[in-house]
Amino acid sequence: MKCLWDLNIGVAMIKYLAITASGPDESSWGTYCPGEYPSPPLEYHSCLGDLYSVAWMEDCDVHNLRTETIKQQYKLVKERTSNENSSCGNEYGQCGEEPEKKDDSGRTLRRDISTPQRCASKLSVRQNSDVAAGGTHSVVLTREGHVWTWGQPWPPGDIKQISTPVRVQGLEKVKLIAVGAFHNLALLEDGNLWVWGNNEYGQLGTGDTQPRSQPVPVQGLSDVKLVDVAAGGWHSTALTDEGEVYGWGRGEHGRLGFGDDKSSKMVPQQVQLLAGEDIIQVSCGGTHSVALTRDGCMFSFGRGDHGKLGYGRKVTTGHPSEVPIDLPPPKNDDGSGLGRWCAKYVACGGRHTLAIVEWRATESDGLI
């Protein structure tokens, strides 16, 4: 997911639009915290929402949501998500350069990082968007066009953890990076796309499902000029200079945008249902995707649980549909109400979507 810190957009004209996980008649507790009560116990002041489910999944093989009480569940998650316990997991060395301490049995211990600390101090990152976080690993792009990584690059147990940044060999003059749960994309200045990491659903676009520990080129994109790439949980997308979108990887729930075809794709295929829309950015979430057009419209597709597609209802679809932006005009509007909200940037998470939008006034002959 790319950072938005350096976007040069007038603050007065910006509203932040969140496509939320819960509707007006549905509480976050009811959505994320199933149990015997409709709300948290009285001694706790708020629901932890997604933090609850993320923390709880760590011990899903030990604890049973269906038999343990809400109070037992909530107490455990509150302990895990408190400042004392940490707000940044580092169990796989993904925070970088953490000294390796040993317990009495000689096993490596890693403490979580509860406040921001400097990491990878020897690396000079080119810009904010060149820092990316995966499921249990981190990746950065330096000013020299090199890619460095650390943490657990594949699912735990598949490959050794790396707590100190190491350079990814074989990549020179890298322009952009994108990181999924356990796979990585690097777009070179010459337009070639290289990939490495987990590949169980074909998310590397190599024509097979074999993982790659070293970068290899993606198949089937040599005849197009790529300008942007994105990586989701187990799928990937690429954008051409003509506004065309290509998708590959896991197709379940329609996250690739191929309509009723929800099969996984081992090599990139053009998303024909977005042809002619002049796409300028695509973001991939865990199980959904959103495409942004040049005129500020958003098209979402994939799994629609928690309302993350923004349609106002929980629908899962492989057919890209426009996301309505139902916001009132800004307070500094001249009162005419002539204009509309246009999206400038989109970002997909595991269970939610964010967008930056701006108000564009109109005249009788169209947008100014």
Indicate the overall shape.
globular
Q: How many separate structural domains?
A: 3
CATH topology label of the largest domain: Methylamine Dehydrogenase, Chain H
Radius of gyration: 22 Å
The pLDDT mean sits at 75
Counted beta strands = 22
CATH uppermost class of the largest domain: Mainly Beta
Q: Which class do the helix and strand fractions yield?
A: mainly beta
Judging by the overall fold, what is the CATH architecture of the largest domain?
7 Propeller
In percent, how much strand structure appears in the residues? 25-35%
The helix tally amounts to: 3
Please name the fourth-level CATH homologous superfamily of the largest domain. Regulator of chromosome condensation 1/beta-lactamase-inhibitor protein II
Give the % helix. Answer: under 10%
Q: What gap, in angstroms, lies between the N and C termini?
A: 31 Å
Helix and strand pattern? EHHHEEEEEEEEEEEEEEEEEEEEE
> What ranges have pLDDT less than 50 throughout 5 or more consecutive residues?
1-62, 80-95
Describe the biggest sheet?
A: 4 strands, antiparallel
